[in-house]
Write a structure and sequence with these properties.
globular; 75% helix; 5 helices; 68 residues; mainly alpha
């Protein structure tokens, strides 16, 4: 369920930016997010595929989605 919600969110972000979905986050990153459910920025940085730039760009939205 979480993975599907993350995929829907990613699709919306990708469409907004006019880029392929994998540019936002790859499936492996979404899987890791769904599995580990990080609760803060530091934990997000521990997920493969999330660096400082993606944390700044998507961190708040992802944390809000995972908190629901």
């Amino acid at each position: 369920v979480v993975f599907e919600r993350l995929r829907e969110w990613r699709l919306g972000e990708a469409r907004e930016q006019g880029v392929p979905s994998y540019v936002v986050f790859g499936d492996a990153t979404l899987s890791a997010l769904a599995l580990h459910r990080p609760q803060d920025a530091e934990a997000l940085l521990g997920i493969s595929g999330i660096g400082q730039a993606k944390l700044e760009r998507y961190g708040e939205a992802v944390l809000a989605l995972l908190a629901d």
